[in-house]
Specification:
The chain is of the alpha/beta class. 44% of the residues lie in helices and 14% in strands. The strands form two sheets. It has a seven-stranded parallel sheet with strand order 3-2-1-4-5-6-9, sandwiched between helices. Strands 7-8 form a two-stranded parallel sheet. Helix 3 packs parallel to helix 7. The protein binds nicotinamide-adenine-dinucleotide.
Length: 263
């Protein structure tokens, strides 16, 4: 049965590949991006996020089967926090009623294997507490210390969104409404985001040192898209609250074999 799925960041990279694969499988896709697509808007700006959500509600008649919340940036400034966490959470929440109205609703978020890298605990806590202004100020303060420290804007935005997914997944608002919500954590992917970095031997070495990928090397966007396609399908009937690292083995290599605490 054809499903209607929203894909954000659909003009490029992982989002574009996901939209193409969903359409090839027969789904109807609403592409969202900054300047091109079915719905345009700046997902780093709260008012724009609300406008995008209202337009999606109008176009779908208030029923949405799937959402791939993928748009993001990897800059060492607070923009990473605004788009990757604040805008993503705002859009998912705004579309929750539309998802709850569908028969087998699913959300898949593009997080990152950067979830596992050093982040700023204060920034992560502010984000999870819903302290948007304080989080943006903290992100700006980190960025002011230079790009190495500023990178924590990216890793913290991804750690926070991964934790948010686990936090909301089992709640009445999501599990209780039948909404499965998971995240994908890519490692290195060849997209517009990494084009400059991966263009030179020095850049490729820097990437490999920061995030080794022993299994099949650097990914193409299509490899990550395939995981999103499954996660937003009706076939994904029991998995929720998971962060699936599609990272070429980085997680297994760095965290090892015993990551589960007893409950
Ligand atoms: N490329 C990688 O190595 C990698 C690794 C891990 C995670 N990711 C994540 O994958 C996601 C997709 O990135 P990509 O690699 O496909 O990069 P990309 O730059 O090719 O695509 C990102 C898309 O998001 C859109 N976008 C950016 N800011 C936006 C905004 N404010 N409002 C609306 N749309 C906006 C861009 O216009 C673009 O079309 C991001 O969340 C990124 O953090 C990428």
């Amino acid at each position: 049965m054809s499903r209607t799925v929203v894909v954000t960041g659909a003009a490029s990279g992982i989002g574009r590949a996901t939209a193409e694969q969903l359409e090839a499988a027969g789904d109807t896709v609403l592409r969202v991006d900054l300047r091109e697509g079915d719905v345009t808007g700046d997902l780093g700006d709260p008012e724009s996020v609300d406008r995008v959500a209202a337009e999606i509600a109008e176009r779908t008649g208030g029923v949405l089967d799937g959402l791939v919340a993928n748009a993001g940036v990897s800059v060492p400034g607070e923009l990473s926090v605004k788009i990757n966490y604040l805008g993503t959470v705002r859009l998912v929440e705004a579309l929750r009623p539309l998802l709850a109205a569908a028969g087998s609703p699913r959300v898949s978020i593009t997080s990152s294997a950067a979830t596992l890298q050093a982040s700023d605990p204060e920034l992560v806590d502010l984000l999870l507490a819903g302290e948007a202004e304080a989080a943006i100020a903290r992100g700006a303060a980190l960025a002011a210390q230079g790009p190495a420290t500023g990178y924590a804007n990216y890793s913290s935005s991804k750690r926070a969104i991964s934790r948010w997914v686990r936090r909301v997944a089992p709640t009445p608002e999501y599990a209780g409404a039948g909404i499965g919500i998971n995240a994908v954590g890519p490692g290195q992917v060849r997209t517009g985001m990494t084009e400059d970095l991966l263009a030179s031997e020095a850049g490729r070495q820097q990437a490999a040192d920061a995030m080794p990928t022993p299994y099949n090397g650097i990914a193409d966007a299509e490899h990550i898209a395939a995981v999103h396609v499954f996660l937003v399908s009706a076939a994904n009937a029991r998995m929720t609250g998971q962060v699936l690292f599609a990272d070429g083995g980085f997680d297994a290599l760095r965290r090892g074999d015993d990551i589960w605490q007893s409950v």
